[in-house]
Amino acid sequence: MSQGEATGPLRSLNAAEWDHTYDSTTPGWDEEPPPLLGELLTEHAPPPTHVLDVGCGLGTTARWLADRSYTVTACDFSPRAIAEARRRTPADAAVRYEVLDVTAHPPLDPFPVVLDRGVLHTCPTHRERRTFAAAMARMCRPGGLWIHVGAAALTEEDALHQSSGPSWTTEETFRTAVTTWFTVLDHRISDFGRQRGVTDWAARYVVLQRREN
Ligand SMILES: C[S@@+](CC[C@H](N)C(=O)[O-])C[C@H]1O[C@@H](n2cnc3c(N)ncnc32)[C@H](O)[C@@H]1O
To answer: Region entry Disordered: which residue ranges (predicted)?
Structure first.
């Protein structure tokens, strides 16, 4: 699939639009992450590290983390998504859910690891990407990690030719958005998801460390 033909979520930046998305469509991106995410986590932050899953959607990644012995707090600004995530999660799972907009100065204590799978890439402009990166910095302890998984443009040409779905950014654009607060420790390109022709487009898997200042 070319990037301009993506069938992923439409770009949207507010909770009401995401509530509508969860109410009206079956999210095609909702699936367990590929093994690479597990490998990066095991290497850089083995369990039982406490992970904040930001923009957790229906909680699939949060439950996948809990199954791997992580302690998980999972948040999303869509109340519908959180209600459905709670419904799908066994009562004894080590996942706590919060309805929270992470860009709105959240009152949570900073975490050793924050994760976003497919959230930064819903930000269509540099300003919004920096707003989201600043929010991740507030949620992450100094010296802690941000694990990011999101759409990757492999060339400038790819970045120009996109019409809907996630915002594909080049590595340079990505680094420019995050560098005020984070150092890149690991950067890899692999498929976003496991579904052929649906989510197997190029994604960036990045381990970032929160600067101490
Ligand atoms: C493409 S979905 C990805 C969901 C999930 N991470 C996954 O991999 O299936 C993006 C999610 O981010 C949430 N989101 C976007 N901006 C947010 C914000 N500022 N605070 C909290 N959640 C946000 C949306 O409601 C949506 O559930």
So the answer is: 1-35
> For ligand 1, atom 12, which residue shows the shortest CA distance?
55
**Among the listed residues 107, 110, 103, 104, the one whose alpha carbon sits nearest the alpha carbon of residue 131:** 103
Cite the beta strand spans of 20-64 per DSSP E: 50-54
Q: Is 117 in the pocket of ligand 1 (CB under 6 A)?
A: yes
Token readout for 40 is 């990066």
Of 26-30, 73-77, 87-91, minimum mean pLDDT range: 26-30
DSSP assigned state of 121:
G
The SS3 call for residue 202 is strand
Q: CATH assignment of 22-190?
A: 3.40.50.150
Distance 27 CA to ligand 1 centre (A): 11
**Structure tokens belonging to residue 182:** 């984070």
Instruction: Report the largest interatomic distance among the alpha carbons of the chain, rounded to a whole angstrom.
Output: 48
Comparing C-alpha atoms, which of 39, 70, 29 is closest to residue 53? 70
Position 46, amino acid: P
Ligand 1 atom nearest 81 alpha carbon? 27
Q: What pTM was estimated for this model as a whole?
A: 0.93
CA dihedral sign, ordered 119, 52, 148, 197: negative
Residue nearest to atom 14 of ligand 1 (CA): 55
Structure tokens at 199: 């989510």
Beta-bridged to residue 98, according to DSSP, are 75
